[in-house]
Amino acid sequence: LYLWHVLRLFLYLLLLRQVTCNRPRDPTLYDWRNWEPRLKLLDTVRYSCKGGYKRTDGATEATCTRDGWSPNPLCQAILSHCVPPPKVTNAVVVTSRQKEYTSGSEATYQCRDQYTIKGVATVTCINGTWEERNFTCTRTYIQMHLKLLQMLYERVQLGVGRITCINGQWEEEKFTCSPTGTYIQKHLKLLQMLYV
After folding, report:
1. Alpha helices (H) along 47-180
2. Which of 177, 171, 169, 172 is nearest to 153 (CA)?
3. From CA 64, how far away is CA 42, in angstroms rounded?
4. Which residue in 163, 141, 139, 135 sits closest to 151, CA to CA?
């Protein structure tokens, strides 16, 4: 039995001599605190990573294993921060402004007055990039007065006239129209002028 333990120890020591790790050629390494070109199994080396990277799992040393250096990879990219949330036409960000928008940060938008939101108004920072926004702000149209609709489709204006929308209500017409029973071809242009 003793001989068996000695043989196992000898084989283990022989294995230790056979397993070696070369100095890593990892471009993310900043400092490798050992100048030996090869190290043997279970040797450790202190190291640090370049800017923008951190040691994997908070390790302070790398260990030579049968599978190479551990941890693997030695360095990981630090998750990028996002720039402030992108501007969106007719909308403003309503979440409080942050110094840094880390991965997972959210920004919520609200449409400006007279605009209605369509879709989800929250976007998330994912690894330095804001996800694609999935909403729009569209103009809220004031419901037209029934008399105005009738005027557009059934009457032709005689003379110069004007009608104004005040606080969501159309004022009384200040001109006269005579019934013609004809369809006004340019009604779309007039509607656009009223709501632009």
Report:
1. 146-154
2. 177
3. 5
4. 163
Report the alpha-carbon distance of residue 144 to residue 5 in Å, rounded: 97
pTM above 0.70, yes or no: no
**Residues whose CB is less than 8 angstroms from the CB of residue 25 and which lie 6 or more positions away in sequence, other chains included:** none
Express each pLDDT in 69-128 by its tens digit: 999 999 998 877 889 999 999 999 999 988 889 888 999 999 998 888 999 999 999 878
Q: What phi and psi, each to the nearest 5 degrees, are found at residue 136?
A: -140, 160
Calculate the dihedral angle through the C-alpha atoms of 155, 158, 159, 165, rounding to the nearest 10 degrees: -20
Domains of the chain with CATH codes = 2-77 (2.10.70.10), 91-139 (2.10.70.10), 146-195 (no CATH)
Could you tell me the maximum CA-CA distance found in the chain, to the nearest angstrom?
Answer: 121
Instruction: Count Cβ neighbours within 10 Å for each residue of 105-121 and write b for 16 or more, e otherwise.
Output: bebebebeeebeeeeeb
What are phi and psi for residue 76, nearest 5 degrees? Answer: -125, 145
Amino acid at 174: K
